[in-house]
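Thread: quick sanity check before group meeting

JM: Hey all, I'm pulling together slides for Thursday and realized we never actually wrote out the predicted structure for the chain we discussed last week. Dropping the sequence here so it's in one place. If anyone has concerns about the input, flag it before I start.
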Amino acid sequence: MGAGRLSLHRVGAILAAGLVALPVGALALAAARGSGDLWPHLARYVLPPAVVETALLLAGVGAVAVGAGTGAAWLAACYRFPGRRVLSWALVLPLAMPAYVAAYAWLDVLHPAGPVQAGLRGWLGLHDPRAIPLPEVRSLPGCALVMGSVLYPYVYLSARAAFLSQGLGLIRAGRSLGAGGWRLFHQVGLPMARPAIAAGAALALLEALNDVGAAEFLGVRTLTVSVYVTWITRSSLEGAAQIALMLLAAVAAVLALEAWARGRVGDVRSVAEPVPPEPRTLPPVPGLLAAAACALPVVTGFAIPAAYLLWAAWRRVAAFGLPPDLDRWVLNSAVLAGAATLLVLPAGLVLAFGARGRGMAPRDRTGSALLRAGMLGYALPGGIAAVGLTVAFGGMDDVLGELGALAPPPLLGTAAAVVAAYVVRFLAIPAGGLDAAYGRIPRSADWSARAMGAGPGRLLWRVHLPPLRPALLAAALLVFLDAMKELPATLLLRPLNRETLATALYAEAARGTYEEGAVAALALVLVGLPVIGLLMGRARR
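JM (edit): ok, ran it. Output follows.
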């Protein structure tokens, strides 16, 4: 009985990991089916500018995210200054602001007819719309700044955790030797936090690779945008698959860069005394400068875009009322995200449980391999998952269609395809979180339960699940939030005329009706704020 239950868990882990591998295999098959003259055309006219712009965008986003995130984390962890307590959690708020929403907001804020330039012209008595030459946000540098300003919290959170746990002795030793300010940061803090910074930067870059809305709104033709244009505009699924393989190579390059950055650190990461450093109070002027440095990314990444969305949404609602389809957009978004969350949580739990191992063995090798395979989906941009699943589900529908009246309903073009893409992308969140939480459950609990005759199912339900509930709750919140914000996969796979908040915003921005889309954009941000608040509250506790 126990072996049978265990085999069921293993089968579930194999199915979960196989779903993640499915779009990659289907992608390779679709790319190989492309006509002989397709690849030369892509290699000559499409890929070179897309690869260059993608590389430059990643470099810019990485520089902004690492600079803002690491600097703010060091100041918040090691110094006292005015507003430090509020800014410490406010620096996480941009996580509630999707990159395409921030781009949508900044594009209208800095537009010649937008509130900033219109207000300045009225104050200065100018009438020419071009009289105030502000920097052009619709450019590659503008896109890098906008995306970096909302993605830096990935670096901030990981770097701050590293600074707080790097050891009181090292900080005291550095200060006793006369190191302070930049020298203490550069020679003590930064080497210790480099692995965490690399991990946060990799997450930020993967999110930048996944983006299609911000890049397209701001005129940057990345590989992800090229996948969408080639598929939707030019109706070439094979061409989109070939570009998606290049995008997958970019993902591999980001992961390799992160592994290289981690590997350079060597033994400097080991700390004997993980005690938070005692923050040093800054003098008045440096304290105000530190507060301003921490407030700047919050203002650019959250406060200004959120204020614009409130203003634009208020104008739209005051003039025309709420969009008539808003309730349907919210319902569609919530149903798709909720369905994905309900599927992802048990799949992640099965993967983490299978990797834990039995008896005296520290880990199950097969289970650990399946866990790592299942977690690779988070590195897949939504465009890759969408193209791969389209090919796979299309082939499955063709085969099953031969059954005639006995054939099941098709998968392609249904909500099930969107949910499957969400599962592929976000399975890593509960799998990784639960695997880490398992490290806090002593092995003696497993041995005692097995000695009393508990099988795998009872062990999981009665012994493991109670201490895993906080990790499950955090994973559920994160998956739901990420699924609500997901644009590329939803845009490419959603059923006809079934809009979500993300796709409705994209459609309004594409038509140039910014005030119409402001309500949907504001709703997306408002959904994210309670989730961020709950997670930060749990972190403080």
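AS: nice. Residues 1-29+326-394+410-498 form a domain with the MetI-like fold fold (CATH 1.10.3720.10). The first strand starts at residue 79 and ends at 80.
JM: adding both to the slides.
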